[in-house]
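dumping this here before i forget
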Amino acid sequence: MSFLSQRSRSASDEIRPVFEFFAGYRADVPDENVRADLTFGNPHEMPLPGLVACLKDRAEPHSVDWFAYKTSEEEPRTAVADTLRAELGLPFTPEDIAMTAGAFGAIAAAFSMLLDPGDECITPLPGWFCYSTMLAARGARTVPVPLSEGTFELDVAAIEAAITARTRIVVVNTPHNPTGVIYSRERLSELADMLTAKSEEIGHPIFVLSDEPYRRIRFDGHSFTSPAAIYARTLIDYSYGKILLAPGLRIGYLAISPLMPEDERTALQSIMTTTQVSEGWAFPDAPLQYAIGDLEKLSIDIGALEARRDRMHGALTQWGYDLTKPAGTFYLWGRAPGGDSAAFAEALARDGVFIMPGTLFDRPSDFRICLTATSEMIEASLPAFKAAAGI
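structure:
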């Protein structure tokens, strides 16, 4: 339809494969034949009891203005800044924080604040499939840069080669969806040195958007370094939907690194609220903001998640699957038998097991398993994986 904006049509084109997959991947399988849905990061058990109690309390009004208009409220911003100071060892202040509707809202705010039509944003390949649609909606260009083959580490040389005079943002997703790789301080330092030099060369700052919604979901005692501690021109996006396994509760934040040059930091602080207003009053609902102090204390069972990772990884590697053992997130990434993830996903679906084919990540040879399934679902899926491996 010619009356639709070009940006909306471009954004729709970018996300269409994901929507088509979501609408159809279980269409031909009766619910009673489903063994395990290992596609999206949705819960398959009842929510954390503490989460429910917290929300019930915050839904009860404590004052006449409890449900009045809210922007980023002072109390949750202070709570987030306090937590970030303790967790990342950086001197965040409440002014550095924007409360957002999940990481989606934080990423949207960062893109809107930093990008003009025609500007470029470097994203990882494979990587989250919503960056490109959000960039297209702003008239910006997605520049996907492959991660290092086999290890899925940041390829700093490849990122450098992709930088042009229109580059404004480099997205760093750590722990990385879909592979689960956590980037080392040394590799982030290499990236920081390169971006500092390239910013000077092209005459304007290149920012890092550190996409960290899985920051607290780590296995085997792995440590975590945020790019915000290494590269001053960094913004962090975060979502509580992962650590709480409640993605339908849209609460997160965008945080400005306190190491950022003061003039740039102040400029970003001054424009965060108006940017969110211009995007349709894009602030989290009042009860969710009131709840932040308690939500910070809650977590899904990381040990149970790690046990499911170990069970699935151990079984599949025993049957010859080539997998990346994740250091974080709740995903398992691997190579499809025969190198055709679409055919592999279809074969599993006939056995009532659903995975996400790598076609949605522009990696048609690979596949992703989501470990938010129950342990019973994991066990029920294993015969299908064994059969698909020809065992």
